[in-house]
Amino acid sequence: MSGPRAAVVTGAASGIGRAVAERLLADGWRVIGIDVRAEMPDGALSVVGDAADPTVLARAADAAGDRIAGLVCAAGLPPRGTWDDHDTWEEIVRVDLTGPYLALRASMPSLVAARGAVVVVGSIVGSAEGSIRSPAYAAAKAGLGGLVRSMALIGAPDGVRVNLVEPGPIDTPFDPPRHQVDARPDVPLGRMGTPAEVAAAIVFLLGDESAYMTGTTVRVDGGRTIREPD
Question: How far, in Å, CA of 46 to CA of 227, rounded?
Fold first, then answer.
């Protein structure tokens, strides 16, 4: 395959998605970013729209061409609303769980052609922790584990790898923290992580050095999920 490798990154305008897009661009990838906002990193091809909309995802796949070496599903909605608000449940599950499934479905032919890799961004909320604020968010993020393991099995015969990264407390505008960034009593390393630190794990999972990893979960949480009970 000639030319730079192509990657589609959802949620590329801010937070972890933006950090991933910036890192891939710096590493020489061609990046197609999807976001509801157009302010994506310089050098990325912007596809503005809802990352859970099949027509938007199809536009991004077409822009990437017939060989997608990397897909990163970082778009999502944060915990919000009340636990018993049905409309909030529907919207969070649509974006945070159905969105990655639709992105995988839209990109799979091109991923197969490139024997590409996929990284879905989940959360320790759902897989390791519940959420008083948002059962919808916890349920959607927990569901990503089953999606990733299933798609890893589906993609394996064609050389497509699918992995999950679960961040802990990360310093982004996504969900305002309850503690100071550099003083986190709930995190053994004592601080929040940075988007760049999560991006480093994601880029590793896209690359050749992780060629024997699929269907696995990598947590980037400063040790929060292994801490002793208070």
Answer: 40
